Amino acid sequence: MPSPNFELYAKHNPEHSEAYRALVRESLRAGALDSVAKEMIYMVLLGAQGYLPGMRTHIESLLAKGVAAEAIREAVRVVLPAMGSARFLALYAEAEAAIAERSRG
User: Fold this and answer.
1) For the chain, first and last CA: distance in Å?
2) Is the pTM of this model over 0.70?
């Protein structure tokens, strides 16, 4: 299932969206990593960035290619600790900086 958000964009920006699709196709083409491994990486990065419609599109694509649901779950689990802690630590540092700034002035 195509991402409804991207399809809306593509409807109004066909040339630019096709250029973007070409970039994605080239990025996912097999090389040192096979195309499924690359799509797994791409899928979890979309999710980590909060673009859930794109993540869902690639999950459906991976399942259609025969990737096991548990392999997808495992890929997602791999990124959650890093994604969660990195965001939390940045938020915490910003909060501490704001608190320190407020207490100084």
Assistant:
1) 53
2) yes
